[in-house]
Write a structure and sequence with these properties.
single chain, 71 residues, alpha+beta, two-stranded parallel sheet, 2 helices, 27% helix
Length: 71
């Protein structure tokens, strides 16, 4: 997801699969998540994270979104 392109839309919600982004299969980077949080704050928007395959990650701790930045 390209956050700058998202800003050019009227969207106020996004659905993410942070552990396995389609179609590339990459993990959502912490910096990209922060960009999305800023976008959500700017829009008073919503981010929905569906971590549907996190149980398959054995060697890593899941990157859970616990709080939003305050600035």
């Amino acid at each position: 997801m390209v956050v700058n392109e998202l800003r050019g839309t009227a969207a106020t919600a996004v659905i993410l699969t942070p552990a396995h982004q389609t179609p590339t299969g990459v993990v959502l980077a912490p910096g990209r998540r922060q960009e999305l949080l800023r976008w959500a704050d700017e829009r008073d928007g919503v981010m929905i994270e569906d971590d549907y395959d996190s149980e398959f990650r054995i060697a890593r701790v899941a990157d859970l979104l616990l709080s939003r930045p305050t600035s």
